Amino acid sequence: MTVNAKTSASAGNTWRNLPAAQQPEYPDTEALRAVIADLESYPPLVFAGECDQLRARMAAVAKGEAFLLQGGDCAEAFDGVSADQIRNKLKTLLQMGAVLTYAASVPVVKVGRIAGQYSKPRSKPNETRDGVTLPVYRGDSVNGFDFTPESRIPDPERLKRMYHASASTLNLVRAFTTGGYADLRQVHAWNQDFVRSSPSGQRYEQLAREIDNALHFMHACGVDPEEFKTVEFFSSHEALLLDYESALTRVDSRTGRLYDVSAHMVWIGERTRQLDHAHIEFASRISNPIGIKLGPTTTAEEALQYIERLDPEREPGRLTFIVRMGADKVRDKLPELVEKVTASGATVAWVTDPMHGNTFEAASGHKTRRFDDVLDEVKGFFEVHKALGTHPGGIHVELTGDDVTECVGGGDEIFVDDLHQRYETACDPRLNRSQSLDLAFLVAEMYRDQ
Ligand SMILES: O=C[C@H](O)[C@H](O)COP(=O)(O)O
Ligand SMILES: C=C(OP(=O)(O)O)C(=O)O
């Protein structure tokens, strides 16, 4: 792919004429312009051809032939760019992928919320602590987490740090996924530090033994073991900061089309999905696979308009609806959307995000989620699709490979009183490794029963 920054600067910038929600207010716009110019000169983080490959995989999801596992941090942090943290996250996703592939017998498309998930939309512009009010933290790409006036000022230089942090992360992810670490024959090794201490680890170990036997059987039948050596893994994040995303939007020399080369897939969040606003306009210009978060207020008419705007050629794999309604609403609200979209003839991928509609504040003040609510939303999502004869295409979850205490419940139960022990998220509560594996086993069962 040849990079033509000049063309991209004009064609990927039509959003600038429209209102854009959740954008930082930079005090120094000259500095912002200089940063954008630098970013425009940087090399792509992913190739257009890889985005097309993911679109083909997502087409299989949309057609009911594969399942999407999309997961990772709520908010990546610059100081989280370490080999251990990246490996732990990847390991968790690989384990979940193995569980889903084997136990549900379905090809799993693996996409990380990783290598770019540095920006957060927020409910309120400010935060007050002990009578002091400051601008809210909007992710490491915008301002600092520390509660001081200096730290909370949006700094455009952080966009360059976001690029470099994404590049380092993606480099390591590519090394892990193609260099032997993700080899399916390592299925036990991913669990080594975990197996004795957790019920889900023990359950996983049993499944890993079965996978081992299956691999030996296939080997004996003549299947080349090298085929299991690498794993396909894609990156994704919310396309929130349009200055950053459009600076990384380039013309693909093969096709002349624009791609946002900051990630293979990007999604538009619940707070920025207004049809006549900048984010949808931006997404309509790029050719990556696109996700749209659909909250409980989404109407069927809106869903149809997203299809019209973002997938006018009705290309399976282009558009994924990531439904995040809440466990108490999904059974009421989702059927009409699925019915009308299906009746329109469009083939979109339907994916459940069982996290964002189920957040509450514990008495301790921690933002948390109950594992049972997460599970119930997934169940509701599967029930709706079963009743309508459509395909529950995947899950989108906030998780970490670390042993945090941010969501309550799970097989290795975290109680509300435990939340303070390892509450490390910079924004929303994530499933820890044990809860993530629990979820994968339960989703695999639901998929099999479907
Ligand atoms: O991750 C999603 C949003 O950024 C988050 O839910 C908003 O959180 P807030 O309500 O604390 O701003
Ligand atoms: C902000 C997010 O979700 P939503 O837009 O669905 O609230 C997110 O996934 O990080």
TrEMBL record:
Q: Has keyword Amino-acid biosynthesis?
A: yes
Q: What is its EC number?
A: 2.5.1.54
A Pfam family matched in the record: DAHP_synth_2
What does the note under cofactor report?
Binds 1 divalent cation per subunit. The enzyme is active with manganese, cobalt or cadmium ions.
Q: Spell out the protein name for this chain.
A: Phospho-2-dehydro-3-deoxyheptonate aldolase
Q: For Mn(2+), which residues are the binding ones?
A: C74, H356, E398, D428
What NCBIfam families does this protein's entry cite?
Answer: DAHP_synth_II
Q: Which EC class is the enzyme in?
A: transferase
The residues that the entry says bind phosphoenolpyruvate are R113, E270, R271, K293, R324
GO MF assignments: 3-deoxy-7-phosphoheptulonate synthase activity
The record ties this protein, via InterPro entries, to: Aldolase_TIM, DAHP_synth_2
What keywords were assigned to this record? Answer: Amino-acid biosynthesis, Aromatic amino acid biosynthesis, Cadmium, Cobalt, Manganese, Transferase
Q: Name one GO biological process term.
A: amino acid biosynthetic process
Q: Which organism is it from?
A: Streptomyces longwoodensis
Q: Which family does it belong to?
A: Belongs to the class-II DAHP synthase family.
This protein's pathway reads: Metabolic intermediate biosynthesis; chorismate biosynthesis; chorismate from D-erythrose 4-phosphate and phosphoenolpyruvate: step 1/7
Query: Keyword Hydrolase: yes or no?
Result: no
Q: Where is the composition biased (Polar residues)?
A: 1-16
- Segments for region (Disordered): 1-23
The cofactors required by this protein are: Mn(2+); Co(2+); Cd(2+)
TM region(s), chain numbering: none
Q: Which reaction does it catalyse?
A: D-erythrose 4-phosphate + phosphoenolpyruvate + H2O = 7-phospho-2-dehydro-3-deoxy-D-arabino-heptonate + phosphate
